[in-house]
Write a structure and sequence with these properties.
Blueprint lengths: L12 H11 L10 H10 L6 H9 L2 H11 L13 H8 L1 H17 L6 H25 L3 H10 L3 H13 L10 H19 L4 H8 L11 H18 L3 H8 L11 H8 L2 H10 L2
Helix pairs in contact: 2-3, 2-6, 3-5, 4-6, 5-6, 6-8, 7-8, 7-12, 7-15, 8-11, 9-10, 10-11, 11-12
């Protein structure tokens, strides 16, 4: 688990302006569309029903169509075509339908930028994979599976937000990489992501997990959630580039002790790689 690099003094003016906005709290953060915001709220409600979620999705035909597309993917084992949201809810269950709807809504708003489509697609695939791994870790720990998925999914959400700001400020150079931008993303993405979750009225433990996923011990009472995200992040990297060195790093991962995960627990998690990949692919 590598700490983000600190941006150096050679960053161009556009990055200096962004850094100043972050440090003074004047950073403009994107708002979720109303339907996406309602989905996030509804999926965290203890008394939400399948019908309420289906009714909400039906108000956004594009979102509903994408939810059905994912529900019919091989990852969810749809033998017979799912033709309605009620049928999807019945077959997949409330939690899975919430995950799909939330992922599609967030991606459509945050992970889109003309000229950087391939880069953002890779970023989203990593986020989807981390979310799926976080869910499996939480299941192993008997923790909040839905919340863990959302934390993993959003752990890097500060990166596309910062990328959009660079794009807006860079003018004619918007579709090209600005020198030093990656250092700014690495250093500030957790902080910006946490601020974004605050603006979306997400729970404090989720905010802390995003803010501290590169330094989970600093998350205080929410350290366990941050450790889950940290391990999920590195499992996602391992999924993308497995190998002997990656395996060795995971077996010495600092999250194993605080999460009380033993060697056999890690082996059981690693054995889920293909299943995790299929689930991530479905929402990518």
């Amino acid at each position: 688990m590598q700490a983000p690099a600190t941006p150096n003094s050679q960053d161009p003016e556009v990055l200096d302006r962004i850094i100043a906005q972050i440090e003074t709290g004047r950073l403009e953060l994107p708002l979720l569309p109303q339907t996406a915001s309602q989905i996030l709220s509804l999926c965290q409600s203890a008394d939400c029903t399948m019908q309420e979620l289906a009714d909400l999705l039906q108000r956004d035909p594009t979102l509903a169509a994408n939810v059905l597309r994912v529900a019919n993917s091989a990852a969810h084992g749809a033998v017979e075509p799912i033709v309605s949201l009620q049928q999807a809810a019945s077959r997949l269950g409330f939690s899975t339908l919430c995950e799909i709807a939330t992922a599609i809504a967030v991606r459509g708003k945050i992970f889109t930028l003309r000229g950087r489509e391939a880069e953002l697609a890779r970023m989203w695939r990593h986020s989807a994979t981390a979310g799926t791994w976080a869910k499996e870790i939480a299941r192993k720990r008997r923790r909040n599976v839905e919340g863990a998925f959302l934390c993993g999914l959003l752990h890097d959400v500060g990166r596309p937000v910062l990328m959009q700001l660079v794009h807006e400020l860079a003018g004619p150079a918007a579709n090209a990489h600005v020198e030093g931008e990656q250092r700014v993303y690495d250093h500030f993405h957790a902080e910006v992501g946490a601020r974004l979750l605050v603006s979306w009225a997400m729970p404090a433990w989720m905010v802390a997990a995003i803010d501290s996923h590169h330094a989970p011990a600093q998350a205080g009472e929410h350290a366990e959630a941050a450790w889950i995200v940290a391990l999920a992040d590195d499992l996602a990297h391992w999924s993308e580039q497995p190998g002997a060195e990656a395996d060795k790093a995971l077996r010495a991962h600092p999250a194993l002790e605080p999460l009380s995960l033993y060697e056999e627990d890690l082996d059981a998690l690693l054995a889920l790689r293909e299943r995790v990949a299929a689930a991530a692919e479905a929402i990518s």
